[in-house]
Specification:
- The structure is a single chain.
- With 90 residues, the chain is an all-beta fold.
- 0% of the residues lie in helices and 20% in strands.
- The strands form two sheets. Strands 1-2 form a two-stranded antiparallel sheet. A two-stranded antiparallel ribbon has the order 3-4.
- A hairpin with a 5-residue loop joins strand 1 and strand 2.
Length: 90
């Protein structure tokens, strides 16, 4: 489960559902694509596997880890693992 953001082409919002399917929030995405990552997340993202064999019905759910105050930004851990530190350009 991860979101990837390529360096050269603006924002890309991809969430891996399973081995066959990803959600690309640039195509019919909702406001959840603007939720940021942070060191002290107040939310957690997980994949809800739908009943049956149709994996296209799987969904991403972002759930609060604690009470979130009005006006407070929602943050969750994207789970991005880098093989090396990003450059200044990245």
């Amino acid at each position: 489960m991860s979101i990837t953001v390529p360096v050269s082409s603006g924002h890309t919002f991809i969430f891996i559902l399973n081995k066959q399917w990803v959600i690309d929030a640039n195509r019919d995405g909702n406001d959840a694509r603007w939720i940021n990552t942070g060191c002290e997340p107040n939310g957690v993202a997980f994949v809800h596997t739908a009943k049956g064999k149709d994996r296209t019905k799987d969904k991403v759910i972002i759930e609060a880890k604690r009470k979130i105050k009005a006006g407070e930004e929602i943050i969750y851990d994207y789970g991005i693992v880098l093989s090396e530190p990003p450059t200044a350009a990245e």
